[in-house]
Amino acid sequence: MKVKELEPGLMWNFFDEITRIPRPSKKEEKIVRYLLDFAAKYHLPVETDEALNVVITKPATPGKENLPVVILQSHVDMVCEKNRDIDFNFETDSIQTCIENGWVKAKGTTLGGDDGIGMAAALAILASKDIEHGPIRALFTTDEETGLTGANALNVAFLEGDILINLDSEEWGEFCIGCAGGKTTTGTFTYQPEPLPVDYFWFEVQVAGLNGGHSGSDIHKGLGNANRILARYLYTLASQGLPLALSKINGGNLHNAIAREASAVAGIPLADKEKVSIAINLLQAELSSELAHVDKNVKVGIRTADTPTAIIDSKTARNLLNVLYALPHGVMGWSFDMPGTVETSTNLASVKMKGDNTIVVTTSQRSSTHSLKLDTVNIVCAVFELAGAEVNVSTGYPGWKPNPDSPILKTSVSTFKKLFNRDPQVISIHAGLECGLFLEKNPRLDMISCGPTILGAHSPEERLEIDSVGQWWKFLTEVLGGE
Q1: Last residue of some domain: 364, 393, 422?
Q2: Both 96 and 147 in a single domain?
Q3: Packing angle between helix 9-19 and helix 113-127, nearest 10 degrees?
Q4: Who contacts 33 (Cβ-Cβ below 8 Å, separation ≥6)?
Q5: Is 440 a catalytic residue?
Q6: Is 144 a catalytic residue?
Q7: Upstream peptide bond of 115 is cis (omega within 30 degrees of 0)
Q8: What are the helix and strand counts (H, E) for the chain?
Q9: DSSP label at residue 107
Q10: Are residues 341 and 445 in the same domain?
Q11: Domain span at residue 199?
């Protein structure tokens, strides 16, 4: 069976079309054109703003004109992660989908169910002829995954409505009514290339096999971080008094993803060559025990490398290594207001060498408490400053304060119980949603976030549960009908 043959057919057909359109963050022109063409095909009013956000409106079905205006909101971009052995260009290639044991997946890449399925649901409602609903505004925002910049620059007029349903949650049966705010903090090191020391053994160390995951929703799971593991290995060698030389280092990718892979090219004196293998074997054994329940496929390995042309000056290399090992990563504190929810965290996201003799270390901080978010940012800044790095902190985005008395929440809970004969969970999540920015622009909005079950978001293991999609669609159409 193909994805477009699944039920409900209208929504899955749109999802199939969406997976065929490249839509990396900050390069959403093709998917925006698709939305504009959709609006023209169905003769629906459409607007765009300078950030390429799109809003498509549809009038109420007869007899439903007095219902509140509902904004159905999703984001158009996707996280672009792939396995090392996959030849794939996210700017030109279509996602290759498959169905396995009740789940829709992609072959070696992220699926884009986050938030392609939200887009598909909104488009299906816009295109439908047999679903009753009040006035609808379908809002599609850009660049959610790399900073919420589309929502931040959104034309305020696009939020003219009474209720906003965010279609970007990843656990069916949960209604989200709050989220964390976040900031991105980077440290930039400028180094001087130095000539190679003589009589050195050059090797490449690689960290791979980790699951990775979302730096918000998965940060509490104890997943391995490739950048941390790489730093742990190199620091272990250096702590033995070995004159470690560092030529290249790269790890991780996006600020909101837990690093899955990292590598470095380094050297030590030929006389100490055996210590490289001894240290890697010891670390592999330690990690296999430590991560057995969350990252059982973790692999650290070394291989002989070509002799490099230069190395990073020793002072910068030492400071960089100290920073990568000293930076906090993971949960910084749990919520007392909503037990079981992470309140504050930080993610050691990536380390990237640039062409201008700089190395950029990117981290991200999240918290539902504004003061603790700033406190964690300051902790990260202090570590960077101690090592002499140039520090930059993003503007960030606000959190979304929960409102347990929300009318749309009460309607959603009662509808869910009627349809499925069980109680949903009401949560506030640690991941970032665009809802905080929407509430700043229109404080009158009554908001909720919901979606089908997606596992492994932001990694090539991303998968979308087919049964949950059908139940979610049934719920959405029932709520929109206002019964």
Answers
A1: 393
A2: yes
A3: 130
A4: none
A5: no
A6: yes
A7: yes
A8: 11, 25
A9: S
A10: no
A11: 183-393
